[in-house]
Write a structure and sequence with these properties.
By secondary structure, the protein is an all-alpha fold. The protein has helices at 2-24, 32-56, 61-76, 81-98.
């Protein structure tokens, strides 16, 4: 029975988190600082979730750092995502073989 209560509470909290912004902000937000803050939130959250996963994924900080540097450089030159991902993985793998 307590499992059903836990699920109901989680569903209610999830619903409230998604519903409150729609009801609180019916008009367009005019305050420029708040608009720019909300614009960058998805990027900040994605970075906060991704960066730790990158550096702890290989088990060695050096291989992860080399893969990250390769990925950032290739992404800077606007290469396709699949090329960036494959090259970064290959760089981390080759670095792991060398170390």
């Amino acid at each position: 029975m307590s499992l059903i209560i836990y699920i109901a509470v989680m569903a209610g909290v999830t619903y409230l988190i998604r519903m409150i912004p729609f009801t609180a902000f019916r008009k367009q937000i005019k305050f420029q600082f708040f608009r720019s803050f909300l614009y960058y939130i998805p990027y900040a959250v994605l970075s906060a979730m991704t960066i730790p996963a990158i550096f702890y994924s290989t088990g060695d900080m050096a291989t992860a750092a080399v893969g990250t540097v390769v990925a950032v450089l290739l992404a800077y030159f606007d290469l396709p995502l699949i090329v960036v991902a494959l090259a970064a993985s290959a760089a981390a793998l080759i670095t792991g073989f060398i170390i």
